[in-house]
Amino acid sequence: ENWCLTSEEFEEWSRIYKLKESDGVKEPILPQSHFETLENMEEIAASQAEDAHKLSLSEWRLWQNRPFPTHLVDHSARCFHFIDVMEMIELMRHEEGDCSYELEIQPYLNMNDI
Amino acid sequence: QRLKAAVHYTVGCLSQEVAEDKEIQFSKQSIAAISEITFRQ
Amino acid sequence: ETVNKILHLHFRDDKTKISSDALLLMAEMLKVFVREAAARGARQAQAEDLDRVDIEHVEKVLPQLLLDF
C-alpha cells in the first residue's frame, strides 16, 4: 500500500513530491500510433483530450544513439538495434548528395539476388 | 554485405512506390536508414 | 531467397528449416514494414511542409515504428 516505503518516507513523499491538482500538470498520454499503410483500419480516437501532455518518443532523440547504464535488466536486442540505427543516422545526418552507406554496399549488389 | 545490398535495392524500389503515391522525394540517406532498419528487423 | 538467407544468418542452429509459407509471410511482413516506414517518413516531412524526406524524418518516426512492429 505504501510502495515499500516506511510511513515516514511515504509522508515525506506525500508532502514534498506528490503532484496536486493545483500543480496544473496535464495528464501525460502517448499519442495513439497510426498505420499509414492500413489507412482505413482505425480512426484516431477523438477522445484524445486537447489539454493532455502528449509525450513524444523522439523528443530526446539526440541522446538515443548510445545505451545508458542499466541495473539488473539489460537493454533488449531490439533496443540495441534502435541505438545502432540512431548512431548510423547521426553519422549520416550531414551528408549531402552521395550516401556513404550506398557507396559502401553498392559493389556487393548482385541483381540475381533481387 | 550482398544480402544487405539486395535489401537496400529492394527498399529503394518500395520507397519509390511510396514516393510516387505521396508525391514526395526520398533522400538517399533516408533510404539507407530504412534499409538498415529493415535488415535488422 | 534473400529473406531466407537473411533468416538463416540469425538461426542459432544451421539445421533449422523454415516453411515456404513462413518465408512468404516474413517477406510480406518486411514489405509492409518498409512501406510503413517510408509512408511515416513522408508524413513527417509533409507535416513540416517539405517535399523531400530526409534522414531526420526517418529518425523521428523510428521509435514508434519499431514499437509497432
TrEMBL record, chain B:
Its main location: nucleus. GO terms for molecular function: chromatin binding; double-stranded DNA binding; protein heterodimerization activity. GO terms for cellular component: chromatin; FANCM-MHF complex; Fanconi anaemia nuclear complex; inner kinetochore. GO terms for biological process: cell division; interstrand cross-link repair; replication fork processing; resolution of meiotic recombination intermediates. It is found in: Chromosome, Centromere, Kinetochore; Nucleus. Keywords: Cell cycle, Cell division, Centromere, Chromosome, DNA damage, DNA repair, DNA-binding, Kinetochore, Mitosis, Nucleus. The keyword DNA repair applies. Belongs to the TAF9 family. CENP-S/MHF1 subfamily. This is Centromere protein S. It comes from Pelodiscus sinensis.
